[in-house]
Fold each of these.
Amino acid sequence: MFISLEGIDGSGKSTQARMLADHLEAQGRTVLRTREPGGSPGAEAIRALLVEGDPGRWSPMTELLLYNAARRDNLERRIEPALARGEWVVTDRWTDSTRVYQSTRGGDRATVDALQDLVIGREPDLTLVIDMDPQAALARGLARPGQEDRFEQLGLTFQETVRTGYAALARDFPDRVRLIDGDGTAEEVAARVRAALP
Ligand code: TMP
């Protein structure tokens, strides 16, 4: 199975991706844990272009192309081979991040979808969105220093729009996308994640 974890910055999804992978491994499964943008060496190099420097460094279209280039490399080099070997893949972000973030950052959703269909064409079997109020994510201290920077750069309103975007995706793709309540301890949230597995 191919599972993606999604959510706003500071939602705790990276912790949940790790805990889910650990849980699956404890069940005897072989798991590839990966992240976006990044995962493969080439995609990690592209990640540096995306997450470092001035937020206005790229136009919305160039940014969209870079996310897709990173994802394509990770898909070809790491994810498809792992799935072909019958392994499970748990990724910290996938195509839904681009749908939500790049639409919020001024991209056109139809273009985002068309490009992803063309160059990626692989949706997760299951997407778990760790749903969290942005203010609560900050107050709970979940946002690590780097993420606090991003909160500051993009603002609470941006994170609120992203959260609303994820809720809309859960309505658009009810068979694939589930909202998980991100309130509580990491272990409490992890139990909800495990309960959402088929
Ligand atoms: P991370 O903090 O979860 O590693 O994600 C890095 C940032 O990149 C985060 O603010 C979300 C953003 N992002 C996009 O804007 N589009 C994408 O397609 C992905 C994967 C991440």
Amino acid sequence: MTDSQPLKVTLLGATGSIGASTLDVMARHPDRYQIYALTANTNVDVMAQLCETWLPDYAVMNDVSSADKLSSHFTDKAIRTQVLVGEEGLQQVVENENVDCVVAAIVGAAGLPPTLAAAKAGKRVLLANKEALVMSGKLFIDTARENDAVLLPVDSEHNAIFQCLPDSLTRHHSSVKITNQNDAAGIERIWLTASGGPFRTYSAEQLQDVTPEQAVNHPNWDMGKKISVDSATLMNKGLELIEAYWLFDMDIENIDVVVHPQSVIHSMVTYADGSVLAQLGNPDMRTPIAHALAWPERIDSGVEPLNIFDVAKLDFEHPDLDRFPCLRLCYEAIRMGGTAMIVLNAANEVAVSAFLEERIGFTDIAVLIEKTLDQAEITIDVSSLELILDADKLARIITNKCIAEMH
Ligand code: NAD
Ligand code: MG
């Protein structure tokens, strides 16, 4: 970053949980960061407030009706924010030459096209939208490398791993290639920590009856609904396993999941000499966001430093793949390769929506994903956005059909 010019940021998913945490960190450093564009799905009221505060050049809403409503908010005020619509609007505010940094914080597959466009445009990309990387994998990493994008993980586990890696690897930050340089760096294992979610101690029988309200009530983290349900099924950890697999180019055998209910250690790296490096902190997404915004510098995030005496005790357990089959399915999808991870992600999105709408039960989520993986044709070629979006679409049709058959 230059001394005088603030970094111009496009924040995709501004009205969400990561969006709010990002704006909270940015507000502490008005000299360093400036909002260029804010985007949201359909939440016009929150978006109108954000635009009044941040005065972005552009605001993007997902549909014409939301965009019109937002524009009408501005007519009697001296706000010059231009309102754009949909995928084209997103692409425009990501690719624009005035933009330095894109924060990818849309939830789900909807975030893939603009996040990939940010990598293609060679931006500094702060990646929270894990589904985008799960779906596009090698295409995304190759695109970031070829276009010199600076890819920085915001997901707390991947950000922790990034922080525990040696400078020699993270200096070339368009993605960290561990396997090729493994010998010199001496990296042996990556440990992804998992809180275990709200149902960590529930029996298989108890899991049958859990409600959406219970599932979105995470013990340690305050997050959007979809990722909260994913945390409850351990699908979130499975998606993060896939995310780590692509991001760090690591063999899956060398990535482990460890349940750590306190969520104080955000992940760890084991080295050849027996050292295990961990990143610790209070569970607050403003820490990884501030790290990624300022990297390689450090800035205030507003998060209280960890009081180790308050923590006192750290517990570790193996994950239970029988009670939480979504994690097992993620391991299987990685081994299947090709479109399997796209199919798994799509089936999960459809199933989680159905669960939140009380159309299916909690344990049906894994059943539906497994059925979809069985029924979808898994193909090897995932080399273009079109192929990826086709596989996503077909999987959603299968999962919806399976849901209809359940009733
Ligand atoms: P959220 O539901 O709180 O917010 C999602 C945002 O995406 C909102 O601004 C919404 O308007 C926008 N959006 C949703 N659907 C859209 C669509 N079809 N088109 C355009 N915009 C759309 O979600 P969140 O918890 O902030 O999570 C965002 C992403 O970050 C997810 O991929 C999640 O897995 C990841 N993540 C979140 C956390 C967390 O603590 N919340 C931690 C790590 C990773
Ligand atoms: Mg995470």
